[in-house]
């Protein structure tokens, strides 16, 4: 999944030590809770020899899991998730969305409702615990033994969308379709129910024309970017810079913030 995930190139990987790049198989069960534990374990090791670690990411949930901690949920019978996954396959996402809307309207309004993983997670907690998923959110979390300085890059939405469209075209030129063809036997795996893969699976299954599948990748990526912006804009601690800002200016600001933390 090199092209579709826009993983760092060999040159980029050689420039600095990276972690959590291609460290899991698509056959592995992995989620944000497991990532939180793995990242914190790694950080505890890194901070023995480094004062600063850099985390780069797109998923606000995964970033918050590391920097602030996850909400605590009760253990849920795995049969509930299996039943919900079956409903997703048979009845579709809209059915699950309506079910969540009836059971937990607050969660329905607050989560990424077009993301089946998020909808199923909210439903399995609600059904398994007998309490709304939203009732477990925003409780007091464990404090982190490190300070976080958050940097965000901003751009006009028009520029973001144009760059997304161009990026998808470049990915297709680099061989995304061939990459997806090799993954076709695994198309039902959760790891592949993601933008860039699921649309091309529909093309390979004969459901869509290729041009339409590509346009859907662009549209769904734009929607994902919009959700990202909404998520990050809620964090008042983020220091925002225009994406064209000179790198040294941003580094100087980070250095200033680190110095303030050390005083």
TrEMBL record:
Superkingdom of the organism of origin: Bacteria
Q: What is its EC number?
A: 2.5.1.75
**Top class in the EC scheme:** transferase
Q: Which reaction does it catalyse?
A: adenosine(37) in tRNA + dimethylallyl diphosphate = N(6)-dimethylallyladenosine(37) in tRNA + diphosphate
Question: What InterPro entries has UniProt attached to this entry?
Answer: Dimethylallyltransferase, IPT, P-loop_NTPase
Q: Does the keyword Methyltransferase apply?
A: no
Q: Which UniProt keywords apply?
A: ATP-binding, Magnesium, Nucleotide-binding, Transferase, tRNA processing
Q: Which cofactor does it need?
A: Mg(2+)
**Task of the protein:** Catalyzes the transfer of a dimethylallyl group onto the adenine at position 37 in tRNAs that read codons beginning with uridine, leading to the formation of N6-(dimethylallyl)adenosine (i(6)A).
Q: Give the UniProt family note.
A: Belongs to the IPP transferase family.
Protein known as: tRNA dimethylallyltransferase
């Amino acid at each position: 999944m090199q092209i579709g995930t826009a993983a760092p190139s060999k040159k980029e990987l050689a420039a600095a030590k990276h972690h959590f790049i291609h460290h899991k198989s698509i056959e592995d069960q992995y989620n944000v809770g497991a990532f939180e534990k793995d990242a914190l374990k790694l950080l505890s090791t890194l901070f023995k020899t480094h004062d600063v670690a850099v985390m780069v990411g797109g998923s606000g949930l995964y970033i918050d899991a590391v920097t602030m901690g996850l909400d605590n949920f009760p253990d849920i019978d795995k049969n509930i998730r299996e039943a919900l996954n079956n409903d997703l396959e048979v009845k579709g996402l809209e059915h699950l969305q309506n079910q969540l809307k009836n059971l937990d309207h607050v969660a329905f309004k607050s989560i990424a409702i077009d993301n089946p993983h998020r909808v199923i997670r909210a439903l399995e907690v609600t059904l398994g615990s007998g309490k709304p998923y939203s009732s477990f959110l925003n409780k007091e979390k464990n404090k982190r033994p490190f300070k976080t300085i958050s940097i965000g890059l901003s751009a006009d939405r028009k520029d973001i969308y144009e760059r997304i469209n161009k990026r998808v075209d470049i990915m297709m030129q680099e061989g995304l379709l061939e990459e997806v063809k090799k993954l076709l036997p695994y198309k039902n795996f959760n790891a592949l129910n993601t933008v860039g893969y699921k649309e091309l699976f529909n093309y390979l299954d004969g459901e869509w024309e290729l041009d339409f599948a590509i346009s859907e990748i662009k549209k769904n990526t734009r929607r994902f970017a919009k959700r990202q912006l909404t998520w990050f804009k809620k964090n008042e601690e983020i220091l925002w810079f225009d994406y064209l800002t000179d790198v040294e200016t941003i580094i100087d600001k980070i250095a200033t913030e680190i110095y303030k933390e050390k005083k």
